[in-house]
Amino acid sequence: EFVYVHNGRFGVGTQSPAHKLDVNGGIRNYANGSAVLRTESTAAGYGAYNKLITTTNTYDLYALNGDFKIDENGVATRLIIKDTTGNVGIGTASLDAGAKLNVVSGSSAYTAQFSRHDADDGLFLHSEAEATHYNWLISTQDNVDRGFEITPSTGVGNRSFSTPAFVIKADSGNVGIGTNSPAQKLHIEGN
Predict the structure, then answer these.
(1) What pTM was estimated for this model as a whole?
(2) Backbone angles phi, psi at 177, to 5 degrees
(3) Please, which of 11, 63, 116, 130 could form a disulfide with 121 given CB 3.0 to 4.6 Å?
(4) Burial of residue 31, with CB atoms counted within 10 A of its CB: 0-12 exposed, 13-18 middle, 19 or more buried
(5) What angle do CA 172, 178, 180 make, to 5 degrees?
């Protein structure tokens, strides 16, 4: 391959570069340590910007006013991380200031899905005051056949779960508090 200079533009593998540097082919960024590819804007009000183009989609990755965003061209913001709060938005650029994670679905499909991997299942709710508080697991069919379960950890601060405190049975619609086998629409075990 040859390097061409045309109207103050450099072309590698192309005789008609359209940008200051235009490369037709792959680029390898290599260093004996950390390899860095840096995109920087030094003008106020402008962002550092990269565009990823495939045959079917165009994605824009950029930092603007301290925020990091991934947009799909012609669709919407796919991901945003706010500089001032660290809050994350998926499917939205309008973040609720009180929520660290904002997920919005643009269709009638699920907004979020949590699936089983290995022995873990469900949504784990962790307490920052782990030494004095219980952790919780929201799951399906871990302990109860056809059951939606909310289970406290077996001890303060640990990550082991065995007996659900709350169960809804899918086959009967029965709700159990303190029991894994509710016999009525609302079955409360204990005082």
Answers:
(1) 0.57
(2) -120, 115
(3) 116
(4) exposed
(5) 40
